[in-house]
Amino acid sequence: MVNLNVNVGSLQLANPVMPASGTFAEGMAQIFDLNRLGAIVTKTITDDLREGNPTPRIAEFKNSTLFSIGTPSKGGDYYINETVPFYRSYSPPLVASISADSIEQFGELAAKISVPGVRAIEANISCPNLKKNGLAFGMDADATYQVVRAMKAATDVPIWPKMTPNAANIAEIALAAEEAGADAVVVSNALLAMAIDVETFLPKVANVMGGITGPAIKPILLRMTYQCAQAVKIPVIGCGGT
Fold it and tell me: What is the pLDDT along the chain (242 residues), one digit of tens a residue?
């Protein structure tokens, strides 16, 4: 049998396959053996309760999907008390994905969810920094550095910042994350996009803009993954844009 073991920093995976955050939930256990995965990455959560964006949230195209889900979240307490215990019965390491409105909140939530069973924390830095006029943390090298530093100071759990492809120079952002102590980087979230319904002349998603993912953007994200891998010495995890 082929040995597919891979190390992501200090974390050993039986194979390099893991779902992107937001694409997987507990219900998948009914149709798929979760133990076949290298790691389990859960949907991004915030510490506060959030409903997400209004509908419609999804528009499908031939080779891509535009989505604007927002970050629906039942909060950090629910994640600790319900989500983490569910996945403890499976062998792949659990990777929690988190989002926050400020650098301080990233550190606080990282500390809060560093409970037995959480083996790594993905920092979704594509979310807007409310102290910097809504500019995504991941579009600014200094903000990325500060988020990672705050999280590293708050927990001993490995930190994986998730890049945004909307940054002008994604390799520069990855370097900032590495300098701050990131254990790996995830490349990347979805490309910012929008679509108009030619019948109604209205945006196809209620939030006007959203992220686009699917086969059409694979060459773009593959290029970005390569650029980051050339720039940093820490592991780079390729992700399809979710």
Answer: 789 999 999 999 999 999 999 898 999 999 999 999 999 999 999 999 999 999 999 999 999 999 999 899 999 999 999 999 999 999 999 999 999 999 999 999 999 999 999 999 999 998 766 566 657 899 999 999 999 999 999 999 999 999 999 999 999 999 999 999 999 999 999 999 999 999 999 999 999 999 999 999 999 999 999 999 999 999 999 998 88
Reading the block at residue 134, the tokens are 């809504």
Contacts 24+ apart (CB under 8 A), 54-63: 54/206, 54/207, 55/206, 56/204, 56/205, 56/206, 57/205, 57/206, 57/207, 57/210, 58/205, 59/195, 59/204, 59/205, 59/210, 61/195, 61/214, 61/216, 63/214, 63/215, 63/216
Report the 10 Å Cβ neighbour count for 44. 23
C-beta of residue 241 within 8 angstroms of C-beta of residue 185: no
127 tagged catalytic: yes
Q: Report the distance separating Cα 137 and Cα 143, nearest Å.
A: 5
What's the pTM?
A: 0.96
Under 8 Å CB-to-CB from 179, ≥6 apart: which residues? Answer: 145
Active-site annotation holder among 20, 45, 103, 127: 127
Given the DSSP bridges, would you call strands 65-67 and 209-213 parallel, antiparallel or unpaired?
antiparallel
Q: Tell me how far apart the alpha carbons of residues 154 and 111 are, in angstroms, rounded to a whole number.
A: 5
Q: Domains in the chain, please, with CATH?
A: 6-52+71-190+223-238 (3.20.20.70)
Contact 35, 56 (CB under 8 A): no
